[in-house]
Amino acid sequence: MNVLRKSKPIPLLKFSLLMSGVCMLLYNIPFFAFVCAHADMILWRRIILIAGLAVVMLALNFLICYLILFLLRHVGRVLIAITHILSAAGVYFVVAYHVMLDESMLRNVFNTRYSEASGFFSVWLWLTILVLGILPAIYVLAKKIDYGSWKRFGASSGVSLLICMVCALANYNQLLWFGTYDTELGGLLMPWSYVVNTCRIIAQDRQRNVEEIPLADGAFTDDEPTAVVLVIGESARRANFSLYGYERETNPQLGRRDDNLYIFTAQSCATYTTGGVRSMLEAAPTRQLHEILPNYLSRMGADVSWRSNNWGEPPVHTEYLTLAELRKAFPSQDDGKESVMFAGIKERILSSKSNKVFIVVHTTTSHGPLYESRYPDEFAVYMPVASNIGNGNSDTEGIRNAYDNTILYTDHLFNNLLDTLASINGWHTAALFVSDHGESLGENGLYMHGAPMNIAPREQYEIPFIIWLDSSYRPSAITCQPTEVIDQHYVFHTVLHLMGLKSPAYVAEHDLLNDGMF
């Protein structure tokens, strides 16, 4: 660093050109690889497109770097250095996990806890950040810069802006192609992918209503004791449930039940947790923050409890219990994983002062990358397993084995819940299992989830949707078995039916058990 400080100052023009070139060569190879793979056009047009994009990228990055450093000086150095480190981390995840840093993925990042994020830490990640991020950042912070005059600043900025405009006009006939892949290109363009999408998320969150818009009041149609439990599965994809025809017996316990167990063909409304969970809890698709299901039921007089080992749900204004709190309350029922999430549910229902009880259990059972860590040893049926999806390129079978073991554990947990509910005398009890989204396990080189819905593979949105009713439940409720594919919005209206809540928000067409009772 001292050598850099003692060296001859570099003109800001050259320094900004250098930073622009470094940004393109170190962080944007996946961007150009995507362009090459998807530019379905004759060779000379493809060459012009790629060359034009390279020139625009160089000119735009030069312009922004030049502006930031000339106007902000030392603060600008810090900002440029930070972008190098963040871009290094970003390109690692793009290459290693085949993700795109679009708005959906950035929301996932902001809703990720350290306990989950630490599963991605590896030697290769830290080495990438060191070589591609920290070393360039040190150069930015230590190198002497000759900032030049305002006259030179105006001329350099004008020329770079003119180059951007000329190249953009030269590729005007490719607007349709850009429109087709705008999400993908924006999610791969460093550092703009995470900078622009972060600003977009902040702006959207600030504009969102601080308080929920209340739904119209409803009323319970009876006083019969009723308890409904909604289990929100995490990253559980339909393709790996034997209930849906998977060749492995991943649902041995649920598959042997001979009571009222119903399965539906469903897909998620998003490929990330926040979007999927919100779709289950809202009455209809909307960008506004309307009252969600647990808050609405609570306001109508039901006793509502939310149990979570996850995150990403809209604001919940009811009893909210974390995994740590449940472990403290039920230490003898803690297997070190998620069985404690279901502890004491029978007692919680019977001790309620209300005859309408709704419980949500938000799990994290099949979330990557460390599938092997999600289940107890006795559920390690399929072996050998890969310890991390970072090994996926060389051990896709190990990834599949570990993931299938999480489904076995999910089957066990949900089946035990059904046995518990069936043992409660004098109550109508029901349970739903719906996943927030699916999961990629290496198909077409993709892992985990979060791809934009318009290009997401079916593994990321085809989900299980299961309903169980105890033998004492209203016979009229068991009526509908739709053949069409449903989505997560059916949860809201089906739960209203199960709870016996007549409401203006209820939509019969989205009630899986609709019998015209309302």
Topology (elements, then pairings):
Elements lengths: L1 H5 L3 E2 H16 L1 H10 L4 H30 L1 H24 L5 H8 L3 H4 L5 H20 L2 E2 L3 H21 L4 H6 L1 H7 L3 H16 L11 E2 L5 E8 L18 H4 L4 E8 L5 H9 L11 H7 L3 E6 L10 E4 H7 L15 H6 L5 E7 L33 H27 L5 E8 L4 E2 L5 E2 L13 E8 L20 H10 L1 E2 L16
Parallel strand pairs: 1-2, 4-8, 4-9, 6-7, 6-8
Antiparallel strand pairs: 3-13, 5-12, 9-12, 10-11
Write up what this structure looks like.
The protein starts with a helix and ends in a 16-residue tail after the last strand. The model has no long low-confidence stretch (mean pLDDT 87). A hairpin with a 5-residue loop joins strand 10 (440-441) and strand 11. It is of the alpha/beta class. The protein folds into 2 domains: 2-207, no CATH class; 226-292 and 309-349 and 356-510, Alkaline Phosphatase, subunit A. Helix content is 46%, strand content 12%. The protein is built from 19 helices and 13 strands. The protein has a 7-stranded mixed beta sheet, with helices on both faces. Strands 1-2 form a two-stranded parallel ribbon.
